[in-house]
Amino acid sequence: MLPSMLFAQLEPIGIFDHHQDVGNPKLKGSVTYNAKDQSYEMTGAGINMWATTDQFHFLWKKIKGDFIMQATIEFVGKGAVDHRKIGIIAREKLTATSRYADACVHGDILTSLQFRPKDSVATEQVEMFSYHPTEIQFQRTGNTFTFSAATFGENYKSVSKEMELSEEAFVGLFICSHAEDVMEKAIFRNVRITIPADKDFRPYRDYIGSHLEVMDVQTGLRKILYSEPISLQAPNWTPDNKFLIYNAEGLLYNYNLATNTVTKLNTGFANQNNNDHVLSFDGKQMAISHHVGEARTSTIFTLPVTGSDNPVKITDEKNGHSYLHSWSPDGKRLIFTGNRNKEWNIIAIDIATKKETILTENATLDDGPEYTPDGKFIYFNSVRTGTMKLWRMKPDGSNEEQVTFDEYNDWFPHFSPDGKWMVFLSFPKDINPTEHPFYKQVYLRLMPTSGGIPKTIAYIYGGQGTINVPSWSPDSKKIAFISNTKLEVKK
Fold first, then answer.
1. 173 Cβ partners below 8 Å, 6+ apart?
2. Are 232 and 352 in a shared domain?
3. 0.90 exceeded by the pTM?
4. Are residues 180 and 218 located together in one domain of the fold?
5. Residue spans of the chain under pLDDT 70
6. Based on the domain organization, do 155 and 76 belong to the same domain?
7. What domain range includes position 477?
8. pLDDT in tens, 292-319
9. What are the tens digits of pLDDT across the range 371-417?
10. How far is 29 from 489, CA to CA, in rounded Å?
């Protein structure tokens, strides 16, 4: 390893501790961090990262234990050698012969999990059938290393390798030109280092940190706006494009998009709010789900979007839980998931008269209802076929029809203000389809409202609280959401 004195001379860059050449390549590499879009431009040379010794440029952070690291990757230029390499690596030492495992994307079609099981022995690899991927993820779980890759819009393909590596490793991005006299360049975007929840964490009792993010839905480019070591959940994007409203620890907060500051939103006595808070289509009102009484019954209230000391109660807690999800476009009704007659169904309530109308009547769970902007349909998710899928119906509950059909568990359809697009959250098939748990590897997927094949636009560690509520920007180009990782408590 480098002596501590040399470490002190190196400067942190972005979310990483240091960057340097490994193996003394003839041409010296570099890194430039662009704080505006949170990207990293790397240059590097090096004969190879193979056989018994390596030469490359390395941007790293010391990480102890399990991690998940992601990046959107791009070579710059045609390149001189087909086997130039970029990717993510976990390395025991900063020596040229150190043991390591990596997620390696070559200049040609080769994509592989490379590994050197012991110092100074020959490198091996597990090849992956993902050609020219743009989205990569490298995960450590104990001594299992998993490389996942996809071209933007697709879902991950993965390969894994068991290999012993010290508990604390150097983890980060690398570039190797595969030629002594050639300097290559690459750009790494959407770089995320996730420290996952402990295996024994208790849902709704234990929480890890959160990033408030925004993303361009067509390019997949993301930016972290704000981070806290607590559970932030479910941002709304106000129609005036001024605020993101999210909940944390029972309260609601405004994130000011112009000043990047956070202020508490006044909800008066309603201080036990969950992540079901929704704005009216005109942006003047909001409705919230507040837990009432010793039974903590989720009950719906309305208030001005600017806040109020006295929110107006809409549902009666004596009827059972009411989890809000959408206003009608005309502002006259709310729809929610309610527990009535020992069943969870989609229910509409007239705000003026407080009259409830049960729209679905199934023994299985129906959840997450939302009106389309034109008011012609209500979309929702239902487990009635055994997997949680998206459905739609007319506003009176008639003409129910299934919308998504693949193996994933799909939740929370949200519509762009222009009515053209729907984004939703997809959980893996191995979870309980009636649950939307915290701290899982999930996808955000995009689909035309007119129908079609869903396109994966974000690869996220999150789940519950990520995108429970409508969060589209007014121009229908971006969405806001929450991703999760362990974060240090600020002192």
1. 16, 40, 42, 58, 59, 60, 71, 86, 87, 88, 89, 188, 191
2. yes
3. yes
4. no
5. 1-10, 490-491
6. yes
7. 209-485
8. 999 999 999 999 999 999 999 999 999 9
9. 999 999 999 999 999 999 999 999 999 999 999 999 999 999 999 99
10. 34
- Got the DSSP string for 125-142? EEE-S--S-SEEEEEEET
| Side-chain half-sphere CA neighbours of 353 within 13 A | 6
Q: Are β-strands 18-22 and 56-64 bridged in parallel, bridged antiparallel, or unpaired? A: antiparallel
Whether 82 contacts 107, CB under 8 Å:
yes
Q: Is residue 220 part of a domain?
A: yes
On whether residue 204 sits in a domain, the answer given is: no
Q: Is residue 469 in some structural domain?
A: yes
Give the whole-angstrom CA distance, residue 244 versus residue 467. 12
Same domain, 225 and 307: yes
CA angle 61, 67, 68 (to 5 degrees): 100
Radius of gyration for the alpha carbons in the chain, expressed in angstroms and rounded? 24
Q: Is residue 412 part of a domain?
A: yes
pLDDT at 35: 97
Task: Please state, as a whole number, how many other Cβ atoms lie within 10 Å of the Cβ of residue 359.
Answer: 21
- C-alpha–C-alpha distance, residues 46 and 269, integer Å: 63
Same domain, 27 and 85: yes
Q: What is the dihedral of CA 444, 448, 451, 456, to 10 degrees?
A: -30
Give residues with Cβ within 8 angstroms of 306, minimum separation 6: none
Q: What residue type is 238 in one-letter code?
A: T
Report the CATH number that the domain containing residue 363 is assigned in CATH. 2.120.10.30
Q: Name the nearest CA neighbour of 412 among 282, 351, 323.
A: 323
Same domain, 129 and 240: no
Residues 14 and 74 in one domain: yes
- Cα 449 to chain centroid distance, Å, stands at 22
Q: What is the DSSP string of 281-338?
A: TTSSEEEEEEEETTTTEEEEEEEETT--SSPEE-S-GGG--EEEEEE-TTSSEEEEEE
Structural contact between residues 458 and 211, judged by C-beta atoms closer than 8 angstroms:
no
| Residues 392, 397, 401, 404, CA torsion sign | positive
Using CB atoms within 10 A of its CB, is residue 305 exposed (0-12), middle (13-18) or buried (19+)?
A: buried
Contact (CB, 8 A) for 139 and 148: yes
Overall size of the chain counted in residues: 491
Domain final position from 132, 160, 194: 194
The number of domains in the chain is 2
pLDDT at 104: 98
pLDDT value for 9: 55
Cβ burial of 471 (10 Å; 0-12, 13-18, 19+) is buried
Of 194, 229, 261, which residue sits at a domain end? 194
395 and 328 within one domain: yes
Tokens of residue 130, six digits: 């993902």
Residue 390: helix, strand or coil by DSSP? strand
